[in-house]
Design a protein that fits this description.
This protein is an alpha+beta fold and 259 residues long. It contains seven helices and 15 strands. Strands 7, 8, 9, 10, 11, 12, 13, 14 and 15 form a nine-stranded mixed β-sheet that branches. A six-stranded antiparallel β-sheet has the order 2-1-6-5-3-4. Strand 3 and strand 4 form a beta hairpin. The longest helix is centred in the N-terminal third of the chain and has 16 residues. It is globular. The two termini are 17 Å apart.
Amino acid sequence: MATLNGRLVSPDELLPLALVNVGHFTTMRVDDGGIRGLPLHMERLTKDCKAVWGADLDTDRVRDFVRQALAGQTQPCVVRVTVYDPEVDMGHLADAGEPQVLVTVRGAGAMPPAPLRARSMPYERDLPEVKHVGLFGALHTRRSAQLAGSDDVLFIGRDGLVSEGSTWNVGFVDQNGTVVWPQAPVLPGVTMALLQQRAEHRIAPVTLEQAKGMAAAFATNAGIGVRAIAAIDDTELPTEHPVLDRLRETYLSVAGERP
């Protein structure tokens, strides 16, 4: 299911997104008609639209398109809102500035998924504060991690510090039971923000060695909630921990808002 400004999108309208690959998006999980952190998702779209396109975004209109796309859809599902300009020209990007709203819907998996095994790799995303569609580098490192026998990748910056995963934020539980979020340039995830608003935590630089010595580690995004990390490289980590249970309960207790 894919709509552009509330109507079915044509292949020709999708070509600029595939070939030029300039735009930004947010991904939201829908459970029982509600979306956790919906205002934060709209704030992200507004902020990123200004950063990418220099344009304002009518979020009431976006919510209307999301409602239309969700009509009759089986839930839970995942809805993605992508903002891009179908008229964009690779040679004249400065002329682009009339972004349109593409809404796609797909089924959602169980939450939380099984624990994942992460492979550390050096990588820093372009404009990490923007949730943009330029995913090649992140997905290339994910593929490399999977070829090495892991499920996904954990990014290490040039400063040697842990930052984030390919499409998720990472958090840790230290030996005192405190939730630790890495202090690094990362995409500020909505799920991470919801947890930070509701659970005690600290933000601090985390080296790879420190990450491997934590009492537990977890990945977060809107699609997976709180997912335990079973290993970083060859270091095994506990996948059962009372703090992880509390974080899951905290996240699931957040009331969803209808678009």
